[in-house]
Specification:
homohexamer, 315 residues, alpha/beta
């Protein structure tokens, strides 16, 4: 493989914020206010590090050393949590909030699955290096001589554990190790050049990430399954418009939660939106209207996705 | 391997619906009404997404967001269950029901076993990509400028776990991982082009499927061993015509079920049709007629296929 | 390896039935009447499928659907059982019974051990394909335009588990997987062409066979260690001619059986004929005649071959 | 790979002491006085072995044999301890103390991550050999004909376990073993030439180091998590300047320590500086000033990095 | 590797019987009378199969079928037992007894360790095939047109488990499997040509032998550690000539046996002759004569070789 | 790799005895008198086998058979024991004792670590063969036509387990197996040519040595950690000259031993000389004299090297 990989090989697509669709999706992400806020602030500081200095001068004059600690953190955030907990959704939409907040354009580059390559020696390393090359080029254009950046780039690595697996695992292949090193070098390139770019990694196996990668994370945001309130929000916002009553919504919220002695986990966000809601609709389609009692019955027949077995609880 | 694989290398055969033979086979599939109905609806909506909108306008005007969730699901359905539980039979015949229901022609392309290749690096990826290429070409011809498709294509992947094995397994080979990625890209190509095509995967090892593949499934249909009623249907429809009486049929139905304290599972559909019925006939052949008491005796001597050991119960 | 493998590389030898030697050996196989009968019938129907129709018209007119089920079964029979239980002996001699019963010539092609190859990539696949090519060519010559075949071919795969190992085993090598696929394709070629040919697989590790191979088996015949009556037959037919009395034969039969609390298995057929009988003779040779009491003593000193550890009891 | 690797491939960067920045960082390393002192003395003797002789003549005339034992120790020191315990920080800054103490210039060469190579056979060996070549060349220039060296070189190997993994591990790859041997030869080259150079290895998996490497270590310095006093120093030096009072600092010190029955470990240095302090600041930013009570609340919500599982407690 | 391996690569040396040295060594092998007798008879019949017919005509006229069973057994004998139990010694010397008994010359070819090759693909297969080629050529020269052979060849495979490891072991390498097949083909070539040649395999891991190899063994001779009588023979024949008295010999015999509650095994033959006797002599050398009490003391300080862990007790 | 490896690639260095430095080091090895004596005698007999005959004629005329057993033992001695127990030190210095005792010159060739090669196929085999070639050439020059040798060669293999690992380990690589075979052939070459050469292997993992290698060892000498007396010797000989009193030496001896309930092992020789003594000196350097009470305090803070985990206790 001597030819440079093309853009479409490297990235699944290219998104630009602000835009209406991600704004709407971000708004629908309930119960993740803390993660939203932390992520938006970290990304905002990459674009506009001067903001923190302004704040310190206002509130804490003379705290420069403390600020340096924060501004020196590598531009990497890990989003860790169960399948269907909303981490990918947040990663794909947070750019909109930052773009609006900082009043700039932000570009999202989601690393393509094919960047994992096909197992040829050196291939993953080359693909990753090319992806970071592209990210650096884009971000460099947006970096001002001084002051606030004209825009920012977010490199999104979903299902990151496959890419940056822990070197603790004895079976780790040299090819994978080389990929981890390429990844670390990429992060360091962005950090050293102080570019307006960030890397977001999503994983449901936090403990499988290489420690050298985790150590470089400025923050690790954790995502859990939706609680009662979040389930109610998702279900009622979809089902009330088609006429389900409070009583049935209540029953659905209860049914989709954990059940003591049966299972200690409830439905994931995905279980609710990708499995339960379609099943309720398709059961009625094409001949009947959706019926509340029948909807609850369907919810009872669905077993939620079991949690991914991972040895570690993220912070 | 520089030459493109031929059609006969990629697919075991090519079936077109409607046709009498699959219609008859589908009719013989007893006790799977729920799976039939769900699968037919999902496939029908791929051909004719307008159907759902019509239904919503009739029953639930203003539920467009909910409908979008359903119509945006990837065109992949997983059929999971024990060996001999009828999942492959349903996958091979459901096209007939959809063809009749939507009044169009449907083509079934069963992925050949040889698509797993012979272990050469890059081979499985190339074969899978070629299979999806072909599927996309066929489906593109059937896609209308607007409205209902002129036909549809179903790509069938039987014994899918061998192809799309979980990346959780540490031993997973790069070649296999590349195959999984090629598969995911194929699904995404069909979805993005909104083609009238669907992928059906049959597996008896749901937990062995790659999570990234499972997550893309619009639905996971589960198949169990036949219950008492289903066993009775299969046995009586074959054995009453050759003269077995109610008493012996009853005994056969009981014998082929689970036996408390001995085994907690009964005969599979395959055990009934591929093992028990031939054994009854061959025992009599060539010198005697089939005898009911002897048939029961033969059933008692057959040990049903043990369930495949898999760590997970599908929903 | 570009050259086609030669016949002598593919098959250990080539046997033709009817012949006196296999007739005698088949007659000596005691206690396997059920297996003999089932195997002869299945093979007979491959040669002469019309026989079953004739039988049905005589006894069960109108049972064509049931007959189709039987005639559509793939031409593969698995013989499963412990080392020394007679399965290979039956596989090597049953052809004689079928040849006499159907009054045709039958050819046995025992797959050579070397067909497993030497581990070169693609080698096992190529060797297996060549073996099936040869089988198909031979059987095609014997297939009539209509009616009963002029002869039949039996492809024998002894120690089949080494060739068609279960894909469940995570360690399975790509080379082996390719061999399994080549094997399945071979079976399907014979079935699709409705040739007068069958494949017999012998294995002492039923559970190690690939499920996709097992599922294609028309029947799985199981073989156990000889019971008391069978041991008596083997021992008395060899030792009475040289003068051992009833009393000592009784003692030998008891000694070679299971012993409660000591071991739950007795001698295999091979333990009796390959180990015990030679030991009795060689002990006397060259200076003394065989003595009954001493023969019993020798039997007591031999520990029977322990059963092969396999997780599954064949039906 | 026939071309010699370049300097920038081998080393992450090149630092020279004395310098202000490492001096400040070294001063901030609280609670590591013993490790500082031992490391500075060992490095000092490599530059100026005559110092020990002078000391012995002053205090212990006639103890030359004992001195020889010390001066003959290989120029390798292992810094072992938990993630975030300050070992890398000490390794990167101790050169400043030695440079000032001995009044010479000291160069630090941190081995680049890429020196682990990309898995090509022989690659790691070649890269390591090149790194030692460079170290030897630099140190040779600094070696005087007699007496005290004109300067010194420190080769720093961070995350050393990945490079010099124990040969006890059965799975160890030949490539890795070759790397270990190259490493040992490098140490021996420096020792045999009595050059003013030392190798510092940092690891959080002491037991994973190859025994042949450990045996060559002149000293193994161990690093633990910060105790109460060290946590107080870190927290108060950052938070007092922005106005937090004694009461809140006390609460933070307690919160970040071990909690009996909950966890037997407290925050690492990194947990304090890279996670807690930024979280406190970003929580307030951009709209509020940092608040003590809220800071304690944030500290409670952070779970400290779990200790690396390693079978051995370093001395 | 295109060149044929040379004789000295294939065999460690070439021995011819009868000869004085092996005669003396065979005579020194105490307590192995049964194994000696069985092995000599089996080898004798390979040279002179007519002997068995003569015997039968004398004692059991009409037992030809039984004799055929014996004469058809493959020319392979397995010698199985613990390290130091005398199996290799017997294999290297039994040829002398057979040569004298049958009044012919016998050649022993001990397979060289290097025949295991260096791991190149196809190498072990080629080396084994060459070794069997040579054996077949030599034996063919000795085969008469009819009647008794003019001589015989024994191919000795010591430490056979390394060569013919069980295919049950999942980890078995293709290269090894190919070696097993080459070995089986070699045995079959000798058997089919009815040559005056035999293969002796020595192993201390009977269960590690490939079942397909074991099944071909005409006999499996088992070897145990020396009992009290055998230890006394070995010790007294060496130590009485240098003056040790009955009392000390008794003590040595007891000391070198099993000790209840301490260890359930005594000294091996090798422990006695290779370790204990030299230790007694060297302790006295060069200044003192051997002393009985000191000899017992030395025996007490030696821990016998622990038995090889193997899951199976040979018959 | 077609070029022959050079001497400096094969051996770390080349030592000749007698010499003052090894004489002094050997004298310092306390508590190993038994090992010294046994090793010197075995090596002495290789140089001068006539010595044993002279002794026997003097003390035990007519014991030639017993002497042959001893003189036929292969020229291999294994030195087995814990890290830091003095086995390598003895192996590197015993040549001096033998040289003085036999009044000849002895050459020590320590096999270089690099002889393990870099993992290229065939490399270790070639390097080992070259090392034995060189040893044989040197020793051949020293072999007299008759009588006592003019000198001797000792080939030292330290950390031998890495080279001659047990073939019992299923994971053993072909490359390693080939290395073991090359090693065995080397030993046999020296033995067959009756050269004045010996091979010494040091290992801390006796059970990891290939059984075929161990079986060839004339003797296995075991080494333990220093006892109280040995620790006292080491400590007082270093610390009394610099003024430590009896009281403090006593305390140091006790501190460095095992502590019931805490650990069942004390300091190794290396722990004493390479860690404790330097720590005591460096603690005082450069400003104070060594102080006894402080020395004891330092000893308490050092955790002795834990014993290497190995499944077997050498005899």
């Amino acid at each position: 493989m001597n030819t440079k990989p093309t853009l479409s090989e490297l990235f699944e697509r290219r998104l630009t914020y602000p835009d209406f669709e991600p704004q709407a999706r971000l708004a629908r992400l309930v119960g993740l206010d803390d993660q939203k806020s932390r992520l938006a602030k970290i990304l905002g500081l990459l674009v506009n590090p001067g903001g923190l200095t302004d704040w310190a001068q206002r509130h804490h004059p003379g705290a420069q050393a403390l600020l340096d600690t924060i501004l020196r953190r590598p531009p990497l955030v890990v989003l860790a949590g169960d399948v269907g907990s909303g981490k990918t959704e947040l990663a794909e939409t947070i750019g909109d909030a930052v773009a609006r907040q900082e009043k700039i354009d932000i570009t999202l580059l989601p690393l393509s699955l094919s960047t994992r390559g096909q197992g040829r020696v050196g291939e993953m390393t080359q693909l990753l290096s090319a992806a970071f090359d592209y990210t650096v080029i884009e971000a460099t254009k947006l970096k001002p001589a001084s002051g606030k950046a004209r825009g920012a780039v977010i490199l999104l690595v979903d299902e990151a554990d496959a890419l940056a697996q822990s070197r603790e695992a004895a079976q780790m292949h040299h090819e994978d190790r080389a990929g981890v090193n390429a990844f670390i070098r990429g992060i360091d390139r962005i950090a050293n050049a102080k570019l307006p770019a960030a890397v977001l990694m999503c994983t449901n196996r936090l403990s499988a990430l290489d420690p050298a990668v985790r150590r470089r994370a400025a923050d690790v945001l954790s995502f859990a399954r939706p609680g009662e309130e979040q389930r109610r929000y998702v279900l009622s916002s979809s089902l009330e418009p088609i006429g389900l009553g409070r009583h049935h919504i209540d029953a659905l919220v209860a049914t989709t939660g954990p059940h003591r002695g049966v299972r200690d986990y409830g439905f994931t966000f995905s279980d609710l939106t990708q499995r339960l809601l379609p099943a309720i609709v398709l059961d009625a389609y094409p001949s009947r209207a959706v019926d509340g009692a029948r909807a609850v019955e369907i919810a009872r027949s669905i077993i939620p996705t079991p949690p991914f077995r991972d040895g570690e609880k993220p912070a």
